[in-house]
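User: Predict structure, ligand 2-amino-3-ketobutyric acid.
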Amino acid sequence: MVAGSKRILVTGALGQIGTVLTLELRRRYGDDRVVASDKRSQVPPELVGGPFVPLDVLDRPALEEAIRDQDIGTVYHLAALLSAVGEQHPQLCWRVNVDGLYNVLEIARQHDLRLFCPSSIAVFGPETPREQTPQETILRPTSMYGVTKVTGERLCEYYATRYGVDVRGIRYPGLISSETPPGGGTTDYAVEIFYEAVRCGRYTCFVRADTVLPMMYMPDAIRATLQLMAAPRSELRHHADFNLAALSFSAGELAAEIRKHLPGFECTFVPDYHQAIADSWPCSIDDTAARAEWGWRPEYDLATMTTDMLAKLAERQRRGTL
Ligand code: NAD
Ligand code: AKB
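Assistant: Predicted complex:
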């Protein structure tokens, strides 16, 4: 939903979610009404059809100027560092994920913006119940990324209740997409495995075969995002911390599912530093609140996602864009 006639800004628009979300927003609202932005400035061909502004979310004056000049009413704030990169650069992770979000919230408060600010299953930690993790539960993450995501959720809640900012968000699980590669997370193996299966029929996975994490196919994630943003505000009891579930499978089960389509596919499992982060996250998620408050239902299961991913990647390989 667009606030009045104002335009939409997507921060971190060149990332895994941002590229696909920007395209879908432009399809719904028109190319000119969706301004993509990112700290990086090499715009991929699929996004050149609409406006792009280079923006570092840590530069609050530049962010505010862009929001004023571009007549922005809604921000999808996707600029962030993910868990694996965040563990390599914890200080930068805090700055981008917390200070960047704080800048966006402050500008939203002053300019009456609507916001989408995603969270993650990384808010959970080793003490959280791992099966069917409840909406309201222990939030004691052990990764810096998780620490920033809990902080972000609490900041959003504060701005929603204290200042009435309309800020919404989802605790996304690991997202699997055939379009833009992931940006340095723990769940990246569940995307890389597809790319490498199609490219060369082999993959070395950086978590154990029995590692089970909650995942979701990108079309479901985009649909969820836009559905939450379109929900009547009066129906929402939660703001920026909705649990969301679709799929849970082990890395070994994913390899076996791919092998049904590509029988020669070989996957070996060589756990590295990602394993400790993966082991601190839940296996499955209870998303009753999202279902009750805004009608969430996933469409893809492991079999339908795998069929679609492999078909899309094979098509990209034929076109020479893989
Ligand atoms: P990504 O890493 O693919 O993209 C993030 C983008 O932010 C990149 O294009 C990067 O250049 C940009 N960026 C980094 N620092 C910036 C800065 N200072 N100013 C402006 N731009 C900057 O991430 P993503 O997967 O698209 O994730 C988007 C959001 O969704 C993040 O908040 C992430 O925590 C959340 N999320 C993603 C997943 C997932 O599986 N992809 C799961 C849970 C939550
Ligand atoms: C990551 O692995 O860091 C992300 C996430 C689940 O937040 N995909």
